[in-house]
Amino acid sequence: MTDWARLADPGPVLSALPPGAAVLYRNTESPSRGKEARRLKTLCRQRGLLLIVAEDALLAQETRADGLHLSEKTARLSGRARAWNMRPGALLTIAVHSPAALRRAAAMGADAALLSPLFATRSHPGRAALGI
Questions:
Q1: pLDDT tens readout for residues 35-77
Q2: Average pLDDT over residues 8-19
Q3: Beta bridge partners of 25
Q4: What is the pLDDT of residue 30?
Q5: How buried is residue 12: exposed, middle or buried, by Cβ count under 10 Å (0-12/13-18/19+)?
Q6: According to the model, what pLDDT value does residue 128 have?
Q7: Which of 7, 18, 27, 63 has fewest C-beta within 10 Å?
Q8: Is the four-CA dihedral 45, 105, 74, 26 of positive or negative sign?
């Protein structure tokens, strides 16, 4: 997962990922989002990695990303994830934070769900961890 605040340029760490791994581009606050996503797509293609773009179906289409990632809130509001105009074969991943959200993601046809937080995290202080 990219994180604009913690790792401004994820390019150098891509070489540590094995071919077939996925990079989730989620720099939603970046003013250079389009440019960054296109650069990441090129780097991912060169290294045999998949690129999944978070929260922006249009950017996912423009960059020919391998998938789209939705937050739990966006998925809940959309109701039907495949209505996002994804290209055939594109992956759909959804963030989930409860067993109910995990069931909704499955019902929406998500290819994968990212369940969190299992443990206490500094990024969401005070949020109860789900546990193992």
A1: 999 999 999 999 999 999 999 989 999 999 999 999 999 888 7
A2: 89
A3: 53
A4: 84
A5: exposed
A6: 86
A7: 18
A8: negative
User: What gap in Å lies between CA 49 and CA 60, rounded to an integer?
Assistant: 15
How many whole angstroms from its chain centre is CA 15?
A: 19
H-type helices in 1-132, by residue range?
A: 33-47, 57-62, 72-78, 99-107
Tokens 């970046």 sit on residue? 30
Q: Which residues of 94-116 are buried (b: 16+ CB within 10 A; e: fewer)?
A: bbbbeeebbebbeebebeebbbb
Total number of residues shown for the chain: 132
Output 114 or 3, whichever has higher pLDDT: 114
User: Residue 80: CB partners within 8 Å, gap ≥ 6?
Assistant: 108
Strands, sheet with 50-54, edge to edge from the N-terminal-most edge strand: 22-25, 50-54, 67-70, 91-96, 112-115
Distance from C-alpha of 132 to C-alpha of 74, rounded to nearest angstrom: 25
Residue 117: asked if its preceding bond is cis (omega within 30°), the reply is yes
- Report how many helices (DSSP H) and strands (DSSP E) the chain contains, helices first: 4, 5
CA 92 to chain centre: 9
The better pLDDT of the pair 72, 125 is held by: 72
